[in-house]
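S1.2 Input.
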Amino acid sequence: MRRTMLYLPGNNPNMLVRGHLFGSDGIVMDMEDAVALSEKDAARIMISKFLRRGDFGSVEVTVRINGADTEFWKKDLEAVVPCKRLDGIRLPKADSPQVIKDVDEELSRLEDKYGIAQGHIKLFCILETAYGIWHAYDVATASRRVTAILPGGEDLVADLKTSRTPEGTELEWSRRMIVIAARAAGVDAIDLMFPRVTDDEGLRRDAQFSKDLGFDGKSVIHPNQIPVIHEIFTPSEKEIEKAQRIIAAAEDARARGLGAVSVDGRMVDVPVVKRARYILVKAGLEKEDE
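S1.3 Output.
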């Protein structure tokens, strides 16, 4: 599951050591926005060392490299790809299929160089311009490595020539587009972070909206945000119980040769059963179909 992916500044050894202990589903060691220009080299070295020796348990480990429009991205990949604990690269400015193909090619070269299975390292693509959002499906399908797409935050707002509002109205359409493109491409949709770390009620509303849109989870910038988001994105006992009843009723109807059945006064058809199975997958009670 990717309900939460916690950002860890790449030049903060304390956070790199402790980050996987906060209970998020994944961590993102950050070489980009969280690191000043003068600290890029230090962050690269520090992250690679932690990847080589760190014990991260079952947490998904990713690194946000600098964008392919900078001088740093190939150095970033060269430093972290040999660290076999690495699960994926979070790629900023991933706004065109060509960018994805360029990074894919470099990852393939490095995997071959270091004896790593081809395609092992996945891509999490951040779309940070209007052009990227418009071409979200093309980005999501540009490489088999792409496992998730994400809307940008501040960079996308700047490209849209607007400003952030407490309600997030300015990014609502972009977030919807990401979900539609992700579902069409068969990859995950991870929502942007909620910037106000002390606003629990605002976080709860935003996380619920993310879930209602169809996102699989959210990026996180503070450990205190993790429990709230997990509560929203984890099916409740009531949801699980209803899903189990829907599936049982559908299977019973099929066994008896019935064409229709109702649960709680609602007709159960194929989409309703599909949604029920998805809830059980999210609850860890069923495996997702390949």
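S1.4 Remarks. The chain has a mean pLDDT of 92.
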